[in-house]
Amino acid sequence: MNKAKLFNWDDLPKEVVRDGVVRSGFRGKDVLMVMNWLQPGMAVNPHSHPCEQVVFIVSGRIRFNIDGEEIEAGPGSLIRIPPNVPHFGEPIGDEPVMNLDIFSPIRDDYRHLVDYQKNEFKNE
Predict the structure, then answer these.
(1) Is 91 exposed, middle or buried (0-12, 13-18, 19+ CB in 10 A)?
(2) How, if at all, do strands 32-38 and 97-104 pair?
(3) How many alpha carbons fall within 13 Å on the CB side of residue 41?
(4) Any idea what the CATH number is for the domain that residue 68 is in?
(5) Torsion-angle region of residue 84: left (phi > 0), alpha (psi -120 to 50) or beta?
């Protein structure tokens, strides 16, 4: 049986996506979590993907556009984005946003974010 390991978002490898967007990843067997640090004024990136996405807003305020519908969210807010639905988010106001995205199944294009965990899943 594998021993439990403790991690902290502040200590995980960070990826700079573009100006104003930084992220880190953490995974379980069938789920991927990605913490995003979003700065006001960042360029938005409309996109879609085949994975279901659940968004949890940790801090700050954000406006999500999900298939043309706008939703404003703040700390504690939860949003579900179905697979293959176009969406993007942008911070509202002057405060940075921390949002946690949870993907199921794991997004293949984000697996590089969790390379540091490879040994934990080498037999799976």
Answers:
(1) buried
(2) antiparallel
(3) 2
(4) 2.60.120.10
(5) left
Do the domain assignments include residue 113? no
Domain membership flag for residue 100: yes
Separation CA 25–CA 113 (nearest Å): 5
Residue 32 lies inside a defined structural domain of this protein: yes
Q: Distance between CA atoms of 86 and 67, rounded to whole angstroms? A: 5
- For 52, the 3-state DSSP assignment is strand
pLDDT, tens digit only, all 124 positions of the chain = 467 889 999 999 999 999 999 999 999 999 999 999 999 999 999 999 999 999 999 999 999 999 999 999 999 999 999 999 999 999 999 999 999 999 999 999 999 999 999 988 887 6
The tokens describing 10, both together, are 């502040």
